[in-house]
Amino acid sequence: MSLPQPPERAAEFGRDALIVCDNLVRIYQTGSIEVQALQGLDLLVGAGEMIAVVGASGSGKSTLLSILAGIDAPTAGRARVGEADLLTMSRRDRVRYRRHTVGFVRQQTASNLIPYLTSREVIEMPMVAARRPARARRARADELLAALDVTDCADRKPSQMSGGQQQRVAIAVAMANEPRVLFADEPTGELDTATSAGVFEALRHVNREFGVTVVVVTHDPEVSGQVERTVAIRDGRTSSEVLRRTETSSNGDTHVIAEEYAVMDRAGRVQIPREYREALDLTRRVRLALEADHVTIHPDPS
Ligand SMILES: Nc1ncnc2c1ncn2[C@@H]1O[C@H](COP(=O)(O)OP(=O)(O)OP(=O)(O)O)[C@@H](O)[C@H]1O
């Protein structure tokens, strides 16, 4: 069988994506102990997407988010958001990047806000740092308070708001300078189920209304079940992705179809899930065969 010919020159990995992680590595060194938090992670996110990142505790989710948000620096590999190269960025560019290109919402409701500032004051703060005129600041704060359904909290301090309201104000703060990407690290981790749903809906709303790309780390299957793409991280690498789409049947009923994909790295490596390996007793050696439109994997008969 003749194989289709590859293009003469391979296009740059993720050329059209807004976020590109290519073989990303982050090693933490504490004394003589080395922890490889990210071990060659590949990830592409398109402009305007909203994705969830899931994974066991310690798999590297927060490390990935801190790097992409410009808070932490990678050890090796490539990380790009828009035109910003997160490995080679100068200190000055990093400040600009954190102020204008990205917004960040943390899990701890209290750490997103400032106890003695009202919602309006805290939403205006990043715009003061960006030297936006007072009238523009006020208009943007009004727009965000309304979009996040917290207009009635404009003059309240955090202690006068519920956890859900605090997180929605935190999203407004993160959106103040019109970032291209909004990162949220377990934004519903401290909230009950009903309140979490409201905060997640607020993230979806800013994604749709303002076109901001959203990357949300979560343990909550309810949350990850509501985005079109969920990326799973295992041991510092992307291991699988679930894609969801809504289909309408001939009688008008809609249902969500979720399909799980294994992620192949750029060297062509794919991890076969443990349950598949065990079911067919796949061990060290397997036989690969190329079919017309798929590849099969057979156990080693010997
Ligand atoms: N500052 C640090 N110094 C040393 N090791 C660190 C540091 N930050 C994270 N690590 C280690 O790196 C690995 C990945 O941590 P990370 O916080 O990214 O995981 P996570 O998936 O976000 O976990 P969780 O869901 O518990 O928040 C872990 O083994 C962690 O102990």
Overview of this protein structure:
- Residues 19-260 form the ABC transporter domain.
- This protein has 302 residues and is of the alpha/beta class.
- It contains nine helices and 13 strands.
- The chain has helices at residues 61-68, 91-101, 109-112, 119-129, 134-147, 163-175, 193-210, 221-224, 274-279; strands spanning 19-30, 33-45, 50-54, 76-81, 84-85, 102-105, 181-185, 213-217, 229-234, 237-248, 254-262, 286-290, 295-299.
- Strands 6-7-8-3-9-10-11 form a seven-stranded mixed β-sheet, sandwiched between helices. It has a four-stranded antiparallel β-sheet with strand order 2-1-4-5, covered by helices on one side.
- It is globular and about 75 Å long.
- Bound molecules: adenosine-5'-triphosphate (ATP).
- Adenosine-5'-triphosphate binds next to strand 1, strand 2 and helix 1.
Structural topology:
Layout: E1 19-30, E2 33-45, E3 50-54, H1 61-68, E4 76-81, E5 84-85, H2 91-101, E6 102-105, H3 109-112, H4 119-129, H5 134-147, H6 163-175, E7 181-185, H7 193-210, E8 213-217, H8 221-224, E9 229-234, E10 237-248, E11 254-262, H9 274-279, E12 286-290, E13 295-299
Helix pairs in contact: 4-5, 4-6, 6-7
Bound molecules: adenosine-5'-triphosphate.
